[in-house]
Amino acid sequence: MASGSNNWPAVIEDELPLGSVVTSSGRVSSVHRAGEEFPELPFTQRELIALDVALIDATRATKVRFNVYVGDLGADPAAGVAAIFPHTPEAERSALIAVSPNERAVEIRSGRAVADRVTDSIAQLGVTAAVASFGQGDLIDGLVSAIRVMTAAIVNS
Fold it and tell me: Which domains does the chain possess?
């Protein structure tokens, strides 16, 4: 059995900002007030602009609303996307690219009004394009690649 000093807790609750707590698992959970800026954004402004341009260009070229979700999809990513998709903007005429980085899962769903254009094979092209960049640790590049490949496939079909 290992011995030595234990420096737990690593986080002192009294020093956490307002709205933060240490959960029973030891994870810190915090709220974010609407309208306040995040102190550290997960993406740079340049990355967000690249993603925004790709989304706008794809929507204009295909008349399909492209949406992106990055976050936890749960233990069953397919079920997680099924729960999220109906609440995305213009779900009936959209394609959702959902990424759960911690689970290393990518799911793509399309709405009923565009299912004949955003087919399973086009979704698979998008996943394949995204995974190559994700493997190199570049989330935004993977999303932009997926959007562009899917757009080209839709326009050329």
Answer: 45-155 (3.10.310.50)
Please, are residues 148 and 140 in contact by the beta-carbon 8 Å criterion? no
Give the HSE-up count for residue 68: Cα atoms under 13 Å, Cβ half-sphere: 22
| The one-letter amino acid at 136 | Q
Q: 48: number of CA atoms within 13 Å, CB side?
A: 5
Nearest to 60 by CA among 154, 145, 130: 154
Sequence-distant (6+) residues with CB within 8 A of 5 are none
pLDDT of 6 reads 42
Bridge partner residues of 113 (DSSP): none
Q: Which tens digit of pLDDT belongs to each residue from 16-43?
A: 777 777 766 566 677 766 666 666 667 8
pLDDT at 32: 63
Q: Residue 78, Cβ neighbours under 10 Å: how many?
A: 13
- 3-class DSSP assignment, residue 51: helix
Q: Which of 124, 135, 73 is nearest to 95 (CA)?
A: 124
- pLDDT confidence of residue 44: 85
Residue 55: is its pLDDT beyond 60? yes
